[in-house]
Amino acid sequence: xxxxxxxxxxIQGRGEFVRLALEAAGAAYVDVARGxxxxxxxxxxxxxxxxxxxxxxxxxxxxxxxHGKLVVAQTAAILLYLGPRLDLVxxxxxxxxxTHQIQLTIADALAEVHDTHHPISxxxxxxxxxxxxxxxxxxxxxxxLPKYLAWFEAILARNVHNKPGxxxxxxxxxxxxxxxxxxxxxxxxRYAFPVALRKASHKAPLVLQLHREIAQHRRLSxxxxxxxxxxxxxxxxxRHYPELDG
Amino acid sequence: xxxxxxxxxxIQGRGEFVRLALEAAGAAYVDVARGxxxxxxxxxxxxxxxxxxxxxxxxxxxxxxxHGKLVVAQTAAILLYLGPRLDLVxxxxxxxxxTHQIQLTIADALAEVHDTHHPISxxxxxxxxxxxxxxxxxxxxxxxLPKYLAWFEAILARNVHNKPGxxxxxxxxxxxxxxxxxxxxxxxxRYAFPVALRKASHKAPLVLQLHREIAQHRRLSxxxxxxxxxxxxxxxxxRHYPELDG
Lengths: 246, 246
What we know:
The structure is a homodimer of 246-residue chains. The first copy, chain A, is built from nine helices and four strands. Chain A has a four-stranded mixed sheet, covered by helices on one side. In chain A, α4 packs parallel to α6 (177-192). With 246 residues, chain A is α+β, with helices and mostly antiparallel strands. In chain A, β1, α1 (15-25) and β2 form a beta-alpha-beta unit. Helix content of chain A is 52%, strand content 6%. Chain A folds into two domains: 3-85, Glutaredoxin, CATH 3.40.30; 93-217, Up-down Bundle (Glutathione S-transferase Yfyf (Class Pi), Chain A, domain 2), CATH 1.20.1050.10.
């Protein structure tokens, strides 16, 4: 049974964290909102979740995953569900909780990235919150970005399974959805904050190495070059405003 | 085996969502940072998680729960772990994911509440980001608060188990940790944004009813009057600045 991903069709956004897991696992899935309304897909299928009061358990926002009767929203909860099914998480409860904990921290970082260009309101234009965006971005570049990178670096360094020469992983000795999500966070930062990331990354060499290794994953390397990978653009969470990059 | 909660000792903060679950279940727990350093508790025990490079899986921030060998941080992940053990979540996977999904949305709302008084940086004083706080708070009051309340209201209204006269619940027919967390969110908003909440609440009567009912829970009503419940104050996530309440 194919997975259905319901997400905005023109941005990577939070949906990309789900796409990366599905793609890395080679899972069959439908990117519903990128299909046609004639096929029962497209934007009407996405908006149905928010407009139809017959939805018993309405999501607050996309992404939404449907798998048979199961419907789940919130990126981290979707990955919590997919992890065991796609073999992208360890088997023990401790391992699963730790992977989820890392994912939730990536989600926190992502929300802060969004707020660098929209520190006042997501409902207003960037141009209407530009001075605030400058201040918030400076704090992000100088305080938050180094703090997050240092945390990921420490996790990679302390993961005892990372033997010299072995592929890097955040959890244990195998690929997890948290590795994929950290790849996506770094990839987005490379687009949005290339200068700040370059300055900060000399203190996070393992994080950058993980990013390079995930990009070469046998399935993901093909995905990243395909049309299924939407290009970064100025409508997503990661936006490149040189004036915010310091 | 008693649970250990490691959290800042002088604020409710995110730790309170964990305390409420433990208290509602009548679970034995130690609020570690509120103990004495002489007893191996207090702030040194909390800071150990962040200073000691021997911690294999370091948390990014409190709260942290320790239960035997298990250590988990991130509020929602802690509640994911505690839910089944404290009988504060349903038995089916669908029910557990839905409860977690609600919790993650409450966490998102909470981060936005924090940013009403610290829209630029958590490392700077409120007084240094006051004009930005005014703008962000206005957007929160007019856009975000009504949106979140409408979502919680819809969930309560659509939960078919809420028969007339029955106690309200977000998920199914029994108390879950999400109910407790929504209580806490509303309780904090009553402290921080009493005017805005009063204006918005006529459209969310079930949310306010849930808040009242949880406050009367047989164990929680005692807890809320006890010294274990830290009072709201101007150092936590919920802060009362009348100028931000519109």
